[in-house]
Design brief:
Elements (H helix, E strand, L loop, with lengths): L2 H19 L20 H17 L3 H25 L7 H4 L7 H22 L11
Helix pairs in contact: 1-2, 1-3, 1-5, 2-3, 3-5
């Protein structure tokens, strides 16, 4: 199995886990916030599940996995950047429904870290020029 497919599987598992966190009491505080930072809803869960299934499906071919990592990584990372500044993102349309959230910059950044991290991972792996045809001396 190639590195791109392995990375796509890792991201797929992370995204499916993200969708599950909303339903595991250990991750949700008394106000319904996951990790005490943000609320997930059925729409956001569906986006995470769809992204996770896309990741897992793409892992069957090197080319598909590379495409997924590049597109997913870019979209999620930019969503995280927007979230770090506004507290809302564009992937879930919250920038349009909620606008700029009135929360501390720390909460905005911490809430955006999952998308920043997953997106950066996708970008780094997806755009890395790993070679499979190495010549040894």
């Amino acid at each position: 199995m190639n590195r791109y497919s392995i990375a796509a599987i890792a991201l797929g598992c992370a995204l499916l886990f993200a969708a599950l966190t909303d339903y595991i009491p250990a991750f949700v505080d008394s106000e319904g916030r996951v990790f005490g930072l943000f609320r997930l809803d059925i729409y956001k869960d569906a986006l995470h599940v769809a992204s996770g299934l896309w990741a897992l499906a793409s892992a069957f071919s090197r080319r598909s996995a590379m495409f997924f990592l590049r597109v997913f990584g870019t979209l999620y990372f930019l969503d995280g950047v927007m979230g770090a500044f506004t507290g809302s993102g564009y992937l879930d349309l919250s920038i349009f429904t909620d606008g700029i959230r009135d929360v501390s910059p720390t909460i905005k950044l911490l809430s955006s870290l999952p998308h920043l991290g997953l997106g950066a991972f996708g970008i780094v792996v997806g755009w890395s020029p790993w070679r499979t045809d190495r010549v040894t001396a």
